[in-house]
Structure formats: C-alpha cells, structure tokens
Specification:
Layout (H helix, E strand, L loop, with lengths): L1 E10 H8 L5 E5 L5 E5 L11 E10 L5 E6 L1
Antiparallel strand pairs: 1-4, 2-3, 4-5
Amino acid sequence: MKRHCFQLNLSAQEYLPYYRGQVSALIVQADDGRTIQLPANSLRPFVTASGIAGRFELTLDDNNKLIHLRRL
C-alpha cells in the first residue's frame, strides 16, 4: 500500500463542478511533490457549506487504486 498526504483548500463555488459531476477527477500535489489524480466524488464526505479544507491522507493499493481517503 502507498500513502500520500496533501493539503486541499477549495471554496464551495470551486468544488461545485466536481460535486455536480461536470468534472470527474481532481488533481492534487502530494507533500512529496507527486501529482495525484483522484475521483472527485471521493471528497464528498468532506464537503461543508464553505467548501473543502484540510490535510488529507490517500491510501492506494499496489495498482494505484483508491483504498481510503481520510482527513488528518
């Protein structure tokens, strides 16, 4: 398993196209500099009225498939 941490700060307005399904993936930069693409709907549990903000840890399997996403 691989773990990547990243910081995310999106306003509700910025996340709206992802929430509506108009955009299916979000690209973030991990703390180690790697660029990671993840399904936008995986962030839905973390959406608040003001958007999404915080540090997250992404866990991937050996085939780079999402196993778990959590806020740190």
